[in-house]
Structures are given as C-alpha cells and as structure tokens.
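INFO  loader      accepted 1 record
INFO  loader      residues=366
INFO  predictor   begin
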Amino acid sequence: MNVINKSVWDVKEILALTFVRGLTAVTLRSLVEKYNSLEELFDKPPENKVGQRLLQNDLFLKSGIDALRSEAEIQLERCNKQSVDILHFWDERYPVLLREIPFPPALLFVKGTLIPEKDSIGIVGTRLCTSYGKLTTERFAEYFAKNDMIVTSGLANGIDSIAHKFALNTGGKTYAVIASGIDCISPQLSAKLAEQISENGAVISEYKCGVKAMPAYFPQRNRIISGVSKAVVVIESGLKGGALITAQFAADQSRELFAVPGNISSEKSMGTNKLIRKNMAIIALSPEDVLDELGYMQASHSPEVEITFTHDIERKIYSALSFEPIQMDTLADNLKLSPQDVMVNLLMLEFRGLIRQIAGKQFIRL
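INFO  predictor   done
INFO  writer      dumping tokens
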C-alpha cells in the first residue's frame, strides 16, 4: 500500500479550498500537502501557473479567505442536517483502493458507514434490463452478499437498483455511488432506496450537498464504483452506456473485470458479449466463478446441501426446473402431469425456498 502524506489541515479548511473555482483535485492535493494551512497558502501562494490562477480568482484574495470559510461553514451545516460525513483524501477512513486510482476525489461525502474490513464487488448494467438480466443480477447480488462481500453499484434504475435491493434483502451490505449531492437524489424511489442503503452500508458522492445531477457527472461517478471495488461484474449492456464506461475504468484501474454472457440476438447483451470476445473481461457463468477467480475459495467450495423430496412428482418437477424461467403449463405438458398436480408441488417447493415464481406464472430453480 502506498504511503500517504498526513495532512495537518482540518476538513473545514480543505472544504473551503474546494470553493476556489477551477481548482482540480490533483492541484488541491498538492497544495494541501505543500502548505500547513489555508492561512499560509493565502500568505505565500505558489510562484507558478497555479499561483497565478489562484491570485486571479475573485475568491482567492486576501479579503476572500473569510468568504471561502463562510461557504465551507454553510456546506458543513447542510451535511450535518442530512447526517452526511465528509472524508478528505488523507482521512484514515477514506477507502484505500480508491486512493490508488489515477484521479481520486479530494473529498467524499458519505451517508452511512464504510466498512474497510470487507471487500466490495461492483455490479453494473443497463437501466432497461430484460428478465434474464434481472434474474441474473438477483442471483449474483444475493450470492455476493451471503458470502460477506459488499455489493457496489450506482443507484440507477434497472441492474443497479436490483443489485442494491437483493444485497439488502439478503441481509448484506451495499454501497451506492451517486452523481449528485446526497440531498438531491431523484426520483423519489431512488431516494427511498438510498435511505435504506445508508442504514446497511453507505451512499457515496464526490459532490457537495445541494448539487444536482448533470450528464457529465455520471462518468465521473462510474470511476468511483470501480475504484472502491476489488472487481466489477457487467450484467447486460448495449454497445454504448454507463456500464461499459465503468468497465473501461475498471480496466484502467487494474481491477478484475467480469462480464455475464447473454443472448447473441439481444441488444442488451451486445456490450457484455463484446467485452468477452475482445478478451477485456473474464466470462462469468455464475457468481461462484467470480469469487473463485478472485481467490475466495471458501465461498465457491462450500459443501452442497442434499435436498430431500416427499415424493417422486416433487423430485421430477424440481429436476425439470433450471435458472431459465418456464411456465407452469409448459412444465405440466413436458412432464405429462396435470396442471393441478404441478401447481400444488410448485407451491410446496416455493414454500421450502427451493424455487421461485416470477411474472407470467413462470418458475425458476434457486
């Protein structure tokens, strides 16, 4: 792990410096590590292009230091009202993996709790997912959560939200990385989900409270999803979209990248299939594949539990089911059984947690 220079600045001074317009995170970090305080920086600005830009900034005048601190105070009050914590780059709570990426945020705004002792896996994909994408995401998120991994995604509709929800439903932890201030999450359903996530993980942003999402913020958000994760799994993506941007960030950040293959005729799987064909991503046929590849052997080699059946019809029905959804009537025809017998046994198997019913009277094996 890289040694990080300790900062003597407090979070309020660093926050104040972020209100100097046009100051990049890279420049801010260099100034904080060179100077002992905001006061000293104002007294002796650097004699280079950075210093010249600072001196030309209307907030960076001798009389402007109070203006910067005033802005910082207002922001701290907004964050406190929302129970949002501010972590700077030198804070011990700042995610270690995120610190290592090419352009880490100088500040992180966090609602909830970061869990440094647990590893994270990012799950990303299209907003307009198919039933296959939905079921696959549920399966992967549930398995990762059960095996003590944090599931990280971007809170968007579709694959992202499904990943968050199933991690929570399993009693696991999840991180949501967003492209706005934590107090500006929309729509309302996403804001409600974010509240649940903050109680079982964390909502993370590099944007101050009061900042609304902009199109340019989403790619920046994606680098944090991969940045805090050990690996990224892409589940359903077209040839363009945010999931592929996250995949590229994962590759640039030397993260393990996985893609779930899909129907070759489906537009929603063209992106994932291309990642596999171009050898950019490791094929993920199951969540066990991912954990096995990452070296979490105890998860993928756990002993199988033997299933007992009350009678032969129940066994036949269970054996005929798979991860691919099948309608009840089709199942009855295939097994040459009456729809009534099939329905009764399906309900019993579902009650035991062995199968699941989805929309359209379709069933899958768990």
